[in-house]
Amino acid sequence: MRHVLRPGRLPHQRLMHRPPPRRDEAKRPPIRMSDLILAVLGVTLLGGFALTAAFALAAGWTVS
Q1: Structure pTM?
Q2: Which of 37, 43, 44, 62 is the most exposed place for a label (fewest CB within 10 A)?
């Protein structure tokens, strides 16, 4: 009798297991929501500065 192979599986293929977490990762506290909010606000602020500078350069404004 022939064995039917499922797509993506080879015969006798070992399953990939997740490695155990490192010691450093186990001791690390979870990320707080306030840290994520501050990060998003910082990226938004930097993006606003970049867009302002791009529009200023495109309009021909110069700092004298």
Answers
A1: 0.50
A2: 62
Residue 42 lies in a domain: yes
pLDDT tens for 15-55 read: 667 777 677 656 778 889 999 999 999 999 999 999 999 99
Q: Give how many domains the chain has, as a whole number.
A: 1
50 near 42, Cβ under 8 Å?
Answer: no
Place of tokens 């910082």: 42
Residue 63, in any domain of the structure: no
Report yes or no: 45 and 37 within 8 Å, Cβ to Cβ: no
Cβ atoms 23, 17 nearer than 8 A: no
Structure token pair of residue 29? 């506290």
- CB contact at 8 A, 51 and 45: no
